[in-house]
Amino acid sequence: MNRGSKIALGVWGAAACLATIAAVGQSLWLRATDENRDKWQRPNEVMDELGVQAGSVVGDVGAGQGYFTFRLATRVGPAGRVYSVDIDASRLAEIRKKAEREGLRQIELIHGATNDPRLPTEALDAILVVNTYHEMHEHEAMLRGMYRALRPGGVLGIIDEAAPQGRPRSVYQQNHEIPKELVREDATRIGFGYAREPAGFHTADGENWYFLIFSKPTS
Hints:
With 219 residues, the chain is of the alpha/beta class. It has helices at residues 3-41, 43-49, 67-76, 89-102, 139-149, 169-175, 180-190, and strands spanning 57-61, 81-86, 107-111, 124-130, 150-161, 193-196, 201-202, 208-215.
């Protein structure tokens, strides 16, 4: 091996080492972040409120990095299914890598559109939307898509940051918040029945998030 080849291998080896360190560092950071979120988000309580159990078919709309996707997958088990929906393909790619690494075949990724979650019709028992509803510019179309995807009697849970009423929708989108009253008006206008409001959440950053649950009528 000539001197140039040795130098090249040394450079590539160093780069690979740095990449590995970065990946491990990111993994540790995500784990610590998730553990901190577990404390205030209370994911098991959220899934209990939605009736998620072994064998359930559920959707995580606006999945992001997959915080709820993986917790839902653990809850529903191999006999269930979790549709992980996001409009960001790179986020879905990261979820795919982790799902494959952990052997979670019950997770199915869906590259959603801004006006359609692209979920299968009348196939889901529950849908969860966390810190995402305020971002939906075509919220009515998205709600209709979720309504269509739920089985009769299925439930929709929306968790988002509280905000005062009376402002333009664009302001809520910019501030990443939305009044729960507006969410309730939107959902019931589409045809959802309002079910209840379980206890909300106080984030590590001092934000207040509410939790609304709606149901699709059985007839």
